[in-house]
Amino acid sequence: MTRRGHGSMASHFGADHSSKRRLTIAAVGWTVLFVGALLLLVPDFVELSYGLRACSELGTASEAIDVASDNDASSAPDTSAEALKTADKGVSSRPWLESYNERVRQGGGMVINDPFTFGAADQSFAKTGLAGLPVGVLTVDSMACEAPVYLGSSEQNMLNGAAVVAGTSAPLGEPSSNCVIAAHRNMFFKQIENVRIGDRVCLRTIWGGYVYRVAEIRIISPSDIKSAAVQKDKDLLTLVTCHPYGSNRQRIIAVCERDEGAEVLTGSRLESLPRKTVDRAMGRSALSNILATIERGGAIDELFIEDCGRLLGRILLVFLLVRLVVVAVKRRKATS
Questions:
Q1: Is 258 helix (H, G, I), strand (E, B) or coil?
Q2: Tell me, what's the pLDDT at 48?
Q3: What contacts 8, CB < 8 A, 6 or more positions away?
Q4: What does the angle CA 229 – CA 231 – CA 234 come to, to the nearest 5 degrees?
Q5: Rounded Cα–Cα distance for residues 247 and 124 (Å)
Q6: What is the pTM of this model?
């Protein structure tokens, strides 16, 4: 009987040990899957952080645009001091910017700064008093972009949003001008390859609102400054970022021409911009990007792989949450 008791106890101990080991392995496995899902979703979290950071800057830019367009925003009690300062500096700096644009037109402007090597752009528009202040909002629906716009492609401006490249025209909506706006590829211009000829591009600034249509898309070398040249009588807006995704060896540009007859959003209709920015960051569909790449016969590049990873991460996270709920329900039934 004693031997049987010892055998029974040993068997019970072995079964208990085996059960604990299985639970440990299962816990480690589920933890690895959960961590893996979170790692695959890192690009989503990064996009959301950009959207949240841009919200306050977009809000300031929208208020400043309201003040500058005489929509009584200056009398609103919640108008920020920064927005009032931006609008005021916009008025006082316009003569200097017009003179600057004329110098660019005549070929006597500053040397064009490559926005992705961060040259001497920090002081390019220092005389305007608008350094570090958002002077406008760039909206490109086809690449899910809504970005605050700054004068000068300094490192900080490029981290905060899109920036007017030093040595190119200021965004005054003048004929014979070419305003080149740059943004990082992994931020606001991430989906630039979704842009097509004829797409609408809207630029609202403290000096006015302008609508452009994409006229040309091409790949250039970083040294190709001819692409930023002014074309006689044309009001151009050129968007530029690195190409291909994840690399700095080339540039992709979208040259846009002014659409004089298009309506521009103004005033209180800008109030929802910060909320829309977060919505875009939260709702950007990895699946739609994957399908769009397949449809146009695009190459399997880093962005495509990243989108596949994001989609897999979302599926894994949903699966793990469903599994967690199922386990919790089973345990509750077992104890009741």
A1: strand
A2: 74
A3: none
A4: 130
A5: 26
A6: 0.75
The pair phi, psi for residue 131, each rounded to 5°, is -60, 125
Q: Which two tokens stand for residue 229?
A: 């040249």
Cβ atoms within 10 Å of 46's Cβ, excluding its own: 13
H-type helices in 69-116, by residue range? 81-105
Nearest to 242 by CA among 303, 296, 198: 303
Distance between CA atoms of 64 and 58, rounded to whole angstroms? Answer: 10
Query: 134, 94 in Cβ contact below 8 A?
Result: no
Peptide bond into 171 cis (omega under 30): no
Q: What is the dihedral of CA 260, 263, 269, 270, to 10 degrees?
A: -30
pLDDT of residue 271: 43
Query: Residue 299: which pLDDT band, with cuts at 50, 70 and 90?
Result: low
Q: Which residue has the tokens 């540009």?
A: 253
Planar angle of CA 124, 125, 126, nearest 5 degrees: 100
Inter-residue contact 141 to 191 (CB < 8 Å): no
Alpha carbons 290 and 55: distance in angstroms, whole number? 27
d(CA 62, CA 78): 13
Residues 6+ apart with CB under 8 A from 218: 227, 252, 253, 255
DSSP sequence for 133-168: ---EEEEEGGGTEEEEEEES--HHHHHHSEEEPTTS
8 Å CB contact between 230 and 201: no
Q: Tell which wins on pLDDT, 65 or 110.
A: 65
Cβ–Cβ < 8 Å for 100, 109: yes
Tokens of 116: 């992705």
